[in-house]
């Protein structure tokens, strides 16, 4: 017959404190084989194996109730491992977001109110983040006859914060969430949408085409260079830029009419919306072009 081990011997051979073994024994995960006449616990050799498994599972964060079910073969170790790994993955994601928020707070020197707001927005689920942006677009398009492809594209683009976001991505999401809930910005985007719907009703072609793309490239190139050079929109040089770029725009609008059309879209926050989405989703950076367009609109008005 194999000699039984006292709790002290078990502690010596496993390196676990006596009080820990006693706790596991009382919890039923490492039951004693018998007790001496004096009431001292005695354990069989199998207790060494059980304690080794208990210790490993506890180090992995498995609770005692689940460990007991494993030892009693009510559940398998692979099933428990898979479930616990999934739970840990969710916890890790939360911790990474919390870390990014704290780094952002430290970097920005946020006050308690801003920290609470940042934390609340950062803790939102993917679905909650997408609902915030979807609600913003619903308000922008409500009741308007938008070009289907344009509306579908706008709705298809949503913030997708990665599982391990950088502080910059967390910052971008918080800024975006606050931006799309800002009444003045919502009103600005609504005006853009109304202009779109009015042009669609008038039979204008609104789907992106080569003409608009080429015109946009020329504005970025020529108006951007003119702005960087400090040219006055009322100068002869600015008039030359307008004469070169204006005819490329589809629709044969006059300079004044084209200026009216473009001016509605000059809200820099609309461009910032796309820049923030690019940061959040890990896309290539979206360049800042609104100042060049604003210069071009001013030059168009001078050509009236």
UniProtKB/TrEMBL annotation:
CDD domains: HTH_MerR-like
Residue stretches making up the HTH merR-type domain: 4-73
Leader sequence segment: none
Keyword vocabulary terms for this entry: DNA-binding
InterPro entries found in the cross-reference section: DNA-bd_dom_put_sf, MerR-type_HTH_dom, MerR_fam
SUPFAM superfamilies the record matches: Putative DNA-binding domain
Pfam families: MerR_1
A GO molecular-function annotation: DNA binding
Record PANTHER family: HTH MERR-TYPE DOMAIN-CONTAINING PROTEIN, REDOX-CYCLING DRUG-SENSING TRANSCRIPTIONAL ACTIVATOR SOXR
Protein name: MerR family transcriptional regulator
């Amino acid at each position: 017959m194999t000699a039984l081990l006292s709790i002290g011997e078990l502690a010596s051979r496993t390196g676990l404190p006596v009080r820990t073994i006693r706790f596991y024994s009382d919890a039923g995960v490492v039951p004693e084989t018998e007790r001496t006449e004096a009431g001292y616990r005695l354990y069989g050799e199998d207790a060494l194996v059980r304690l080794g498994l208990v210790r490993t599972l506890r180090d992995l964060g498995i609770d005692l109730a689940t460990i007991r079910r494993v030892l009693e073969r009510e559940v398998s170790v692979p099933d428990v491992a898979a479930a616990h790994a999934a739970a840990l993955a969710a916890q890790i994601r939360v911790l990474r977001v919390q870390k990014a928020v704290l780094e952002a707070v430290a970097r920005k020197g946020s006050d308690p109110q801003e920290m609470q707001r940042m934390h609340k927005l950062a803790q939102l689920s993917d679905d909650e983040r997408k609902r915030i942006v979807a609600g913003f677009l619903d308000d922008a398009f409500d009741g308007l006859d938008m070009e289907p492809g344009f509306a579908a594209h706008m709705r298809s683009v949503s913030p997708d914060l990665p599982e391990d976001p950088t502080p910059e991505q967390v910052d971008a999401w918080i800024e975006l969430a606050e931006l799309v809930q800002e009444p003045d910005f919502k009103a600005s985007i609504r005006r853009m949408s109304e202009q779109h719907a009015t042009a669609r009703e008038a039979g204008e072609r609104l789907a992106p085409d080569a003409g608009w793309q080429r015109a946009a490239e020329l504005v970025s190139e020529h108006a951007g260079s003119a702005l960087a050079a400090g040219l006055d929109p009322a100068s002869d040089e600015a008039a030359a830029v307008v004469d070169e770029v204006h005819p490329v725009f589809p629709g044969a609008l006059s300079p004044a009419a084209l200026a009216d059309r473009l001016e509605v879209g000059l809200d820099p926050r609309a461009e910032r919306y796309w820049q923030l989405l690019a940061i959040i989703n890990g896309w290539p950076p979206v360049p800042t072009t609104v100042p060049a367009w604003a210069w071009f609109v001013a030059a168009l008005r001078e050509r009236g």
